[in-house]
Amino acid sequence: MTGAEAPTWAGPSQASARAGRELRSRYTAADLSVFTAEEASRFVPRGTGDPQTDVTLAWELLYRLEPELYDRLASAEHLHPGVVAWLPPHVGRIAEVGAGTGRLTLELIDRAQRVVAVEPALPLRRILRRKLAAADNGDRARVTHGFFDRLPLPDDFADMVVACSAFTPAAEHGGEGGLSEMERVCRPGGCVALIWPNHLEWLAAHGYQYVSFPGAMSVEFGSYPEAVELAGIFFPGAADKVRRLGRRSVPFDALGINPPRDVAFKVLAA
Ligand SMILES: C[S@@+](CC[C@H](N)C(=O)[O-])C[C@H]1O[C@@H](n2cnc3c(N)ncnc32)[C@H](O)[C@@H]1O
Predict the structure, then answer these.
(1) For the chain, which residues score pLDDT lower than 70?
(2) CB of 6 sitting under 6 A from ligand 1
(3) Ligand 1 atom 20: residue of nearest CA
(4) Cα 178 from Cα 222, distance rounded (Å)
């Protein structure tokens, strides 16, 4: 069976072997077969890789092997309302890259006549399509396969090109090539925006401005048991703290992560 045809769900034995394990020890090199050849060439460039030592590889396996588990986490990490309010209220076309299961996409569909959501992981595209089908105006969005460094869109296509918690300066998650592609697809006078960015100095050196919205922020898990379960998987160092807090709402600080309160953006010359 090729990577492209490999099942993207965890069968009962795999699921029980993983139960309770933190992300770092959830997958093994045997799981790399889930990647398509194109995905493997990006995420496992030398053909070998150990998701137990390479946490970015473990995230890519999570998206493909346990997409619903990833979606439970992303659904609990809400964007700051200031970030949502910062988005343009009405434009013609928005392209989003690395759309995942739609945390940002669902905020975009009322703001543009057309939204194109680019997402490489098939299991995440399936969840996103399901959510869009259930959403008012979800038919304004098209979900398509693609990577930062080869966007399936023409020059000057969109008024805004945006990514949320997806772009990094590393080539496999964007890099120089990915930033150039986002800018190619954005029309003159349009805006390229990276929400919840990392590597601010790198982005500033590429001409990106920065805005951050203040205030306390918490991860809103569905329940206290879910907070304990997901903290054990994604934030094992904070799991005891989450247990002691005894509630479903957990400050980002307590988990040791920056909240999604900021945007790096560039308005392209008209
Ligand atoms: C942490 S998730 C964020 C998903 C979504 N934007 C959100 O905020 O919920 C990172 C996303 O980037 C996607 N991704 C990873 N590498 C990528 C690449 N080279 N090009 C485009 N998307 C990529 C992943 O498949 C995943 O959907």
Answers:
(1) 1-13, 47
(2) no
(3) 147
(4) 34
